[in-house]
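Why Formyl-CoA:oxalate CoA-transferase? Reviewers of the renewal asked for a concrete example.
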Amino acid sequence: MSKPLEGIKIIDFTHVQAGPACTQMLAWFGADVIKVERPGAGDVTRSQLRDIPGVDALYFTMLNSNKRSLTLDTKTPEGKEILTKLIKESDVLVENFGPGALDRMGFTWEHIRELNPGMIVASVKGFSDGHHYEDLKVYENVAQCAGGAASTTGFDDGPPTVSAAALGDSNTGMHLAIGILTALRARDVTGKGQKVAVSMQDSVLNLCRVKLRDQQRLDRVGYLEEYPQYPHGKFSDVVPRGGNAGGGGQPGWVLKCKGWETDPNAYIYFTIQGHAWAPICRAIGKEEWIDDPAYMTAQARQDKIFDIFGTIEEWLKDKTKFEAVDILRKFDIPCSPVLTMKELANDPSLRASGTIVEVDHKERGKYLTVGSPIKFSDMKVEVKGSPLLGEHTDEILEQLGYNSQQIAALHEQRVV
Ligand code: COA
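Here is what the prediction returned.
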């Protein structure tokens, strides 16, 4: 079948990560995504953390595949005219400028709606409209601190810690994509566009939902039994950092395997699922614990959970993380090796499923990227290389009705 979002035209005014992650996904699913970039410079990530001089950085190529690139100075009258034409014939405009930038450009929501009542304007900001920090510019780690992730991540005796996962950026982009698809569905029914706004703080907080659960439990009972602070340590009146503790009802921890002394990733994550207690005991050769009242219930195990993890580590001492998981999987124990980026990049299963894909780029050659984590039975998502800066400018201007002399003049004046 053709791609489900074919026929949807998106003006992609996004940069860095949060916005581009959203529009990249919509491009994978068939939307015509036109990335609008400043002439000469483009998205700042084209030149950030470059590994090949003069060639678009991986930061850019991995977040902008399947898009077209239009260079346009939208602060010039001619640039505004081109943008106006684009707005009239597009379905969605996505942006993640600093607060107020689109308005200052002259493209307020009211004006865009006048130009095209069906237009969906989707924005990422650091904080939501009306928030007391709404004027702040925000990057990933700022959002992780603002959304509750940092105060609850790390170890009790260390500072607030950010995650390597892009909870503030790509996560917000994924929320925005859901918002855009919802607004498109609404437009199918009403014919009207609308404004869709997602803040990075809100998106992080949405993923920290269980920590808000814990705050309320702590307020009521004064302790959190699944945290390592229980029962021997102390709780204050705020949710503490729980280290590597399992966040739900199943205690878990990162455990050392053979070679941990020299390999910083020779670990597995081990979960003690309540009903898997007997298989766990069998797997680690501790059958005597199965019916021992001091061990047989989750409650009985709670105060010696780290001794139990210590015993499991003894068992793991002569097994690599892969050997350990191969044994534990036979006992139905939820676990995983701690995988490095190198191991993931070369994982045959991820290559076969299209989660890690090799893509061709006109200047860089082949590089790896993360393909669609969403798999469809009726669509194969094909990830293409990212566009060069302004690669599609002339083609897009022609489609808007500009002739070759007009296009040459726009280049001359550096409007495009
Ligand atoms: N032509 C002309 N001007 C352009 C342009 C174009 N094609 N594209 C952008 N600009 C202008 C904007 O209009 C703005 O001008 P103004 O401030 O004079 O009105 C200017 O470029 C700077 O934009 P801004 O987005 O504020 O860039 P910044 O580098 O100062 O800030 C961020 C970067 C990411 C901090 C900021 O964009 C932000 O907070 N965004 C919202 C949250 C977010 O998405 N964070 C990033 C997550 S990865």
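The chain has a mean pLDDT of 97. This is the kind of structural detail the renewal will allow us to pursue systematically.
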